[in-house]
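Dear all,

This email documents one entry for the complex benchmark we are building for the journal club exercise. For each entry we list the sequence lines for every component of the assembly. Then comes the predicted three-dimensional structure of the complex as a token string, followed by one or two observations. Please use this as the template for your own entries, and keep the labels exactly as they appear.
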Amino acid sequence: MTAYIRWVSALSRLAAVAALFLLASAIVVVTQMVVMRYFLNASTVWQTEYVIYALVAMTFLASPFVLMEKGHVNVDLLYLKLHGSARQVVQTLAGLVGLLFCALLAWSGWTYFEEAWSYGWTTDTVWALPLWIPLLPLPLGIGLMTLQYIAEVAKIWRGESA
Amino acid sequence: MSPLFTGLLILFALLALLGIGTPIAFALGFVSIAALLIVDGAGSLSILGETFFGGLASFGLVSIPMFILMGSAVASSPAGKDLYEALDRWLNRVPGGLVLSNIGACSIFAALSGSSPATCAAIGKMGIPEMTKRGYPNEIASGSIAAGGTLGILIPPSITMIVYGIATETSIGRLFLAGLLPGFMLTALFMAWTIYDCRRRGIGLSALTERFTMKERFAALPRVLPFLAIIIGILYVLYGGVATPSEAAGVGALFCIVLVVVIYRMWSVTKVTGMFRDTLKESVMIMMIIGASELFSYTLSSMFITQSIAEWIAALDVNRWILMAIINCFLLFAGFFLPPVAVILMTAPILLPIILQAGFDPYWFAVVLTINMEIGLITPPVGLNLYVINGIAPNITLAEILRGSIPYVLCMVVGIVLLCLVPGIATWLPELMMGKAL
């Protein structure tokens, strides 16, 4: 299990680095778009869509890392009052709910991606981006988050998360 | 099963999941998909990914990470300290001047950072020790900063307002304008109370107050003015109808990063990465709740729960102000336990039809809702600002901070009452600048 946790955590960090670059690129592209539109009076084709999808991808890819860092905000009043195995049981229960939701979302996201891929769907703009490209981070990121969730639940019983 | 009963079941399931500590985003998502699976069968699984993705893929949401980045750039720099010093140099011969500069610095910093805890931390680190040094009691020193920090979610640009705008499909620019005067009003109320409280306790100008020459006063300005220029620039761009909030936020974020790097020489890669890392964590947390709440509101409306609640309340035919009072109590209660963004996303789809039906202005309501959320930030059990101050001023007990913040909670209640009596405080400016709504 130690090796599993180490590997999944490393993958989550890697995905977060990718998300970081997407965020940085989005800022540059927004600024470029503003300059094009308002100062050069030129029309922009791909910028709006790029920024939207870059930030959606950022969300999905960084989500496992945020989970690892306990950044997905929750109400911790009750379980902080519990001690010992009672706390472990409640935390596991909460973990399993999250795990199950992530697994369902990842699976549903995968089927959506597969449809977009096999029917060759594109976005309905001038740019006509193949839809599977912005959809891929959903199963990828949330799938990784499911794996990370397994690690988080395991950590509860290894006494690593107080 | 009637829609109202189903709604009640969903509510209890959600409360139970939140109670055991499930992250808000996953609890919302899980309850929604469970309800859809039970009522509509396995086919509803396919809409899960589509709805979640669709909820996030919108240009309006782009402004959220951008404004958060702008805030964390400013928060990670010593800009808060400079802002505080500049105001102190200008205001310190005014009676109660230190308090004025504290709350003033809070409201300006709040506008820049859009985050309440960040404001408390940045201004409190300087302001609290300075106040205690000059003989202010701990309650006033900590309470005024805790309250001043809450202004971050009301004074534009505010993340909370953006989220409201997205959840209710109202104009974000208009929401920002609606928050401006009430933000100033609360600032003034906080200041007035603090000065009165100081006078009452016989705290005046202390001998410790330094005198500054005009030269020193002007010397403090160059580091502060660029940031003020960015806020004014963003507001101008938004209301001149020049650009959308997302575009303004993107350019504002870039400017802030450049300013912080140039003025404060924050070249180090660790610091810049730290800035991005904080932004990533906060934005992803908010975006996941947004995606899940899209699913949640889809579930509620596909089962006619939202509509049934609105109809049921209309049929009760209660006085609209009693209705507003009940809604306020409900929001206040929710705000005691949940962060503002989560409260807005979960309640907006249900509350908005009720509000509109009762003839209230949705922009005015946004302001009332936000002030309710501000109260939640400085009241237990999860008042974030209280714990931030407890962290940066370890010699002040949590009980003192709590006692100190109670008068400010009352100031905010007075603020809500004033808004109910004179709705124009929120609606006058947007109507003046953007014409009548709807």
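Observations: The helical segments of chain A are 2-39, 47-68, 77-81, 84-119, 132-135, 137-157. Residues 102 and 146 of chain A are 6 Å apart (CA to CA).
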